[in-house]
Each structure stands twice: as structure tokens, then as C-alpha cells.
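Why this split exists: single-chain examples teach little about how molecules sit against one another. For that reason, every record in the complexes split bundles all components of an assembly together and asks for one structure covering all of them. Below is a record exactly as it appears in the raw files.
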Amino acid sequence: MEWDWNFVREIMPTLIQGVKITILATVLGSVLAAIVGLAIALARRSPNRAVSRSVGWFAEFIRGTPLLVQLYFIFYVLPDFGILLPPLVAGVIGLGLHYGTYTAEVYRAGIDNVPRGQWEAAKACNLSGYNSWTYIILPQAIPPMIPALANYLIAMFKETPLLSAITVLELMNQAKSVANTYYRYIEPMTLVGAFFLVISLCSVVLLRWLEHRYGRIER
Amino acid sequence: MPAPIIKVDAISKSFGTFKVLDGLSMQVMPGEKLALIGPSGSGKTTILRILMTLEKIDGGHIQIDGEQLYHMERNGRLLPADERHLAKMRQKIGMVFQLFNLFPHKCVMDNVTLAPMLTKGVARPAAEKRAMELLDMVGLADKAKAMPAQLSGGQKQRVAIARALALSPKIMLFDEVTSALDPELVEEVLNVMRKLAAETDMTMLLVTHEMGFAHDFADRVLFFDRGRIVEEGKPDEIFRHPKQERTQGFLKKIIAAGHRV
């Protein structure tokens, strides 16, 4: 079997369509994971035992089950309960929830790293709980954890081919469909790998920069 | 005779099995400058932290400015204070910490203006004008735009004092504010406190190991040991003629360690 550049040229537009969806799913999934992670981290610190326990169990449950199974549930099982989601929406929710349980741990560590004296100073300044969080604690907790969050973003990006299982037309799915149409796998699959590699390498460069920029906070 | 501004009545507090405060009672008059001295673990820092509501009490009552601190009076009954009541009471009290606890992500000016703007709704121009006066008072008007990491320990502590003053508390609590400083930076902080004592009628409570400063600064000295006040009196009485054996022993050790009285 020989590498066919003409075939590459022919399938390229389709694959680029797929790349766009892959990136879109990653970006939306990251935003959701960042929000879900913060919500879980905050809920686990709730003085209300029922809230912190149940959210803790929920996070363990999500982390303890495969993303693929969760995607099947969201896309194929939820319709039985009357919740019908478009493939991309289901995929973004799956990625966001799954990775949200991991980013929650990053938030937890970041929040725990803020010295107790900052809480006490906020209280001595008579700031409310909400103001302490938004003006004092989170602005100090979040910058040092940006590199770790970005790491999960890259990991999530490389897991997006799983979305092909729920019919999202992302890169892997597009490549599979052209491969199945022409019975040629070498070019589409090689290109999928190349796309992921190039984007990952760019992300790593960005990550190094983020680490340099936000990795430490001066006290 | 005016009523005491702080009335502590039979406060007890334990950390686990360790009893830090054991039925502690004390009264502070408005404008009084009080020095709290004693060995570590004697409860002197804990009582400051309790007054700032950073620790909960196990039993007893505290009145600040005629109002219950940890309790609310509702229909003649005393109920545990809720967050709103605590927030109201905290307005009367400011605190300066051993480790400064400046907000490291905010410049000096924002450290001082943040609380007045957020808790009292002061507009930014007014808050900044007041902050400049305070920074001028502590000798740091030229550092308004600096970040805390760019300041020396003594400068940080002076900003922390300005930050606490910005809320115009009636009572200021100073918790070993010079203990974390290099020796050559201690004096600049003590000078600010002397100025504060001379220029305002604030009530000031000071936990310190600077016996010389406590002697000059305080109207009254309380010697703490094992969660109780063992001896109290005018600085001269406590430092020159301590009556209690434990006070004598403590002062002897402190002097032996090289502290000036």
C-alpha cells in the first residue's frame, strides 16, 4: 500500500471540518469542566454535611466510571427519560462533567494552598463570605492552578475521539467515514494522528508559557 | 465612671483536650492601652482571636461596647449570634497579625481601600483619600502603588495597620506584630503604634514579647499563665515589683533571653 497524496488532498476538507468540531468540543468541554470543577470544589467545602457528602459521592462515581460509558448514558439512555440531546451537546456535557471531577481536585488543592491568614485577614476586614471568596481567596488560588487545569484541557482534547461513539462528527469520526467509504485507512488515520500531535505540541508550548506566567505567586 | 468597652466574663476555650482559656474574665475601659504578656500557650493570643471572632468560645460571655459579641438578645433571651450580628460587631474591632496577612495580589492602596469599599459602601475616591491619609500617617504614602512582595517586613506591617485603621474601629488588637520582623525593622512599627496611641483615643490591646515597649506603651499590663490572668497592674508594678512567683519567673526568663525591660 502506497501513500497517496491525491487522496490526502481530496479528504483534507472533510478532516478539517472534523478538526473544527474537535476543537469546539474541547473548548466548550473545558469551559464546562472549569465551572463544574469549581462548583464541586466549593460544594465539598460546604458546612452542610449532606451537600458535601453527596457531591463527594457523585464525583467519585463519575471518576470511577469510564467516559465512554457516561457518553452512552447521556446520549442513548437519557432519551428513555425524555431528555433528548444533540450529539455535540451530549458530548460536551460528558466531557465537562467527567473532567470537572478532576479539575475539582485541582481547585481543592489551589484553595487549600491559600494560607489561613488570608481567611483571617478577610474576616478581620469584616468581608462577607462571598466577598472573601471572590476578592481574596479565588484570585490567589486560581492563577497557580492554571497550568494544572491546562494539563487536563490537553488530556481532554486527546479523548475527544470518544465522541465519535455518539455520532459527533469530530475528526476521528470524519476520518473513519472517509476510510470506510474508500477502504483506505493509512492516510486518514495518519492525518488524524498528525492533527492531534501538532495541536498537542502547540498546547504544550502554551502550557509552558502559562506555567512561567502563573505558576508562582509572590508573597 | 464610664462603662467598660470590653467585658469578658468567664470565657473558656479548649483546643482538643488542651484548655487554653479557663474561666477568663477581664474588663477594658474605653481608650485604655493594654499589654498582654505571658509564656506561649498561656492564652493571650487566643483571647485576641476570640475578640476578633476568629475562634469560637466554649462558654462564657463577651460584651463589646455594651452589646453581646457571641450572643444576641431577642425578646429578653440570649441566643447564639448569627453571621449578621457577628458582622455588625466586627465593625467595632480591627486586628493586626504577626504575619501581616496582607492581600498579596493587591497593591498597597487596594489593600487599604478594599474593606471600606466592600463593607461600608464608601466610594473609591473617598476611600483612596482616606487611605492616603492613613498611609501618610504610617509613613508609606510613596508606596501606595507598590505590591506587598516589594515591601520589607516593617513596611508590610505598617500597611497592615493602615488597613485595619481604614475601617475606623473603636478597638484595635495587635497580635505579636513585631515578632516576625528583623530586629532593625521593629522600631519603625513600634513608632507607628506610639503615634497611634498619642493621636487617637482608640482602645488598644497588645500581645507582645517587647517588654520595654509594653512598659512604655501600656496603661495596664496583664500577665497570662495557663489560661488565666495571674497578675495585673500598672507597668511599673508588673515589671519592677511583680508579686506573683510565676510573673517573677517569667520576667526573669525573658530578661535572661536578652529582652530589655
